[in-house]
Amino acid sequence: MTEPTTQATTYESVKIGLVSVSDRASQGVYTDLGLPALKEWLSKAVMNPLEFVEHLIPDERVQVEQTLVELADTEQCTLIFTTGGTGPALRDITPDATLAIADREMPGFGEQMRQISLHYVPTAILSRQTAVIRGNALIVNLPGQPKSIAETLGGVRNADGQVIVHGLFSAIPYCIDILQGPRIEVNEAVTQAFRPKKK
After folding, report:
1. CB 172: neighbour CB atoms within 10 A?
2. Coil, strand, or helix at residue 59?
3. Distance of alpha carbon 193 from alpha carbon 170, whole angstroms
4. How far does the chain reach from its first CA to its final CA, in angstroms?
5. H-type helices in the chain, by residue range?
6. Phi, psi of 167 (to 5 degrees)
7. 143 CB contacts (<8 Å, ≥6 apart)?
8. Whole-angstrom distance, CA of residue 142 vs CA of residue 19
9. Residue 176 scores a pLDDT above 90
10. Phi, psi torsion values for 57, nearest 5 degrees
11. Which of 154, 158, 147, 189 is CA-nearest to residue 170?
């Protein structure tokens, strides 16, 4: 009697750029929490092998712009997440730098981020987070706090664990499909990936 054969599922590798924008963290005044939080959530949520390209930089617009261009154009990252620098303070320039190097804006991401955050704090309306496309890369501005990063990517859940407001990541795999990037597969215990049903 022959044993049934099982074929291992292989997933494409996904290269993700991570940028934490903070004057004080980049100067060593305190430990950056944004990059570890992003890596932790993405490593749990995505089934594909992940390659991270990380940068911790100050709130300097030219440096943010140069870093995003490098990640999209030179490093050829499929996805780029920034964390920090998205509020109304004078030094909060991450959205401005992101828009400056964009080919196209994706305003729905900012709208959804604020909708998610408004479930927790009324000051969510002060956020200027956005997302853009540059070439074949999707660039998304995320908040700076680890808890907020997880909420924004994963969505709002009720007491039973059911999603009541979808997180950003539910739409990201299909967006990457459209941009002709690698097919991203997710751990459905963490998040869902919504794709149109094939006819």
Report:
1. 25
2. coil
3. 5
4. 40
5. 23-26, 34-45, 61-69, 94-100, 107-117, 146-154, 172-178
6. -80, 165
7. 83, 84, 86, 113, 117, 127, 129, 149, 152
8. 10
9. yes
10. -135, 160
11. 154
Burial 27-60 (b: 16+ CB within 10 A, else e): eeeeebbbbebbbebbeebbebebebbebbbebb
- Closest by alpha carbon to 185, among 50, 91, 52? 50
Query: How far is residue 24 CA from its own chain's centroid?
Result: 22
Amino acid found at 97: A
Write the single-letter amino acid at 176. I
Token pair for 45:
């949520």
Instruction: Output the six-digit token pair for 187.
Output: 């751990």
Q: Identify residue 8 by its one-letter amino acid code.
A: A
Average pLDDT, the chain: 93
Return the structure tokens found at 108: 């729905």
Which tens digit of pLDDT belongs to each residue from 31-42?
999 999 999 999
What does pTM read for this prediction?
0.92
* Residue 9 burial (CB count, 10 A): 7
Q: Which two tokens stand for residue 112?
A: 């959804």
